[in-house]
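hiii, so i know i said id send this last week but things got crazy w the move. better late than never?? heres the sequnce for the chain we talked about at the cafe, plus the structure i predicted for it. fair warning i was half asleep when i ran it
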Amino acid sequence: MDYYQSPTHEQRFDLEIKNSQFITTIRRTRGRDEAKAFIADMNMRYPDANHNCWAFVAGPPKNVHLWDQSDDGEPKGTAGKPMLNVLQHSNFGEITVVVTRYFGGIKLGAGGLVRAYSQAVVEALDQLEWQEIYPRQTVYIKIAYPMLGKVEYWLENSDIDVEDKQFSESIDISLAVIERTWPEQKQALIDLCQGNITIIENDKE
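okay and structure toks below
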C-alpha cells in the first residue's frame, strides 16, 4: 500500500460508557501547528468538559516526529497514550483525534479508562470518511520563459502541486510530486520541453 488514509473533513462520533459521555472529534491536520490549533478549537468548543484528551499523527504515519498525545488530567497513560496507540496501528496520517469526556458519576478505573479511550478512537476510525494521501517529494525545475505557458497548462492538468515560482534568468519552479507517478511525469515534462528543462531531485541534477 503506497498511500495512507486521512479524514476528508471534520467528523464527530458519540459513545456512552457507564454514564460518561465520550465525544470523539477528528480532523485532518497537516503539521503540528494545525494539530494544536484544532485542539485549541475543541477546548473552546467544550470548555465545561471534564477532559479533552488528544492524540495526533500530524504527517505520514511513520514520521514519529509528528506524533504527540495528552491525557488532559486523566490518570497518566490512560487516555492520550492508548489513543495514539490506536492511530499508530492504523494506516492513518495527517490526523488529530480529540476525545471529550463528560464524567457520568461512575469511576471506570485505570483499565476501564484505557479501554474506553481506545474504543472511542477505534469505533470512530471504523466509521470515518477518509481519502487516500500519496507520499510526495519536492522537485525543482528550471525552464526558459517561452516554455512557461505550456508547462503551466500541463501542471494544471496533473496531480502535481506547485509550491513556489522564482523569476530570474530562468523560471525556477518548486513542485510537490507524488512519488509513484513522478517517473512517468518526469519523462512527459522532458518531452514537452523537448529536453530544454533542468530537473533537480534531492538537490542533485
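btw The radius of gyration is 22 Å. thought thatd interest u
miss u guys!!
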